[in-house]
Amino acid sequence: MKFTKMQGIGNDYVYVNCFEETVEDPGETAIRVSNRHFGIGSDGLILIKPSDKADFMMDMYNADGSQGAMCGNGIRCVAKYVYDKGMTDKTEISIETKSGIKFIKLTTADGRAELAQVNMGAPVLKAEKIPAVSNSMEIIGEPIEIDGELYHMTCVSMGNPHAVVYVEDVKKVQIERTGPLFENHPFFPDRVNTEFVHVIDENTIEMRVWERGSGETLACGTGACASAVASILNGYTKDEVTVKLLGGDLKIRWDKKENLVYMTGPAEIVFEGEITCLK
């Protein structure tokens, strides 16, 4: 199987062009290629496929083999892949995902995509649609006790469910212990991604993320969007926010008039190769 390893501010996936390749068991393949000792090493597997609804389709799998609905960093890489590889000459591309069709605008130079702005759609705030179990219609600053510690969380779906909690110092979060407790809490029937956020100022936040099915990653695009939306809802920031993640920065803007969230960031090809995969 031919593959391309790509990353968006450190959120790395193995990409396979399914216009040319066939992946019989994507879940098992994701587990194998994601292994950083016996495989390629990644946060998961993303298949680039034809679509009858958009220009392309993104089919993504987490490192544990579970299928994901949407990946903000991943979709920027898909847009770069199809442009750089000459699969399209468009700089405005539509990509089908499990959470709907997303629209990407590329900034290019010398025939290569350098930056991608993604229209991430409207944030989902209703608890039942996130989904999260709550007596409230929306979960904004709601208390939750994890491992004897009280957190106040704001829940947002950006195609994936997110619980955003605020901490004094993201570096001190024991994320390997706390992340799984959030992820598998009965409050979240489909599990949850958790963002631990510190507000620097009204224009800037920093964040660490525990992603369901993958653990801590260097970046999460949908999580950055959810964190920005949560910070705006709680009155901590303005409508345009720089989100500082372990792997780099993303610019997030929530256009409240249109009720659309826009994410801008880089995407890079790391290396390409071939691997013998399970059929």
Describe the structure.
This protein is an alpha+beta fold and 279 residues long. The chain has two domains: 2-117 and 265-274, Diaminopimelate Epimerase, Chain A, domain 1 (Roll), CATH 3.10.310.10; 127-258, Roll (Diaminopimelate Epimerase, Chain A, domain 1), CATH 3.10.310.10. The chain contains four helices and 18 strands. It has helices spanning 26-34, 72-84, 175-183, 221-233; strands spanning 2-8, 11-17, 44-49, 56-62, 67-68, 92-97, 100-109, 112-119, 142-146, 149-157, 161-166, 193-201, 204-211, 215-217, 240-245, 248-255, 260-266, 268-274. The protein has an 18-stranded mixed sheet that branches. It is globular. Substrate binds at residues 11, 62, 72-73, 160, 193, 211-212, 221-222. This is Diaminopimelate epimerase.
Helix and strand arrangement:
Layout (H helix, E strand, L loop, with lengths): L1 E7 L2 E7 L8 H9 L9 E6 L6 E7 L4 E2 L3 H13 L7 E6 L2 E10 L2 E8 L22 E5 L2 E9 L3 E6 L8 H9 L9 E9 L2 E8 L3 E3 L3 H13 L6 E6 L2 E8 L4 E7 L1 E7 L5
Parallel strand pairs: 2-3, 4-6, 11-12, 13-15
Antiparallel strand pairs: 1-2, 1-18, 3-4, 4-5, 6-7, 7-8, 8-17, 9-10, 10-11, 12-13, 13-14, 15-16, 16-17
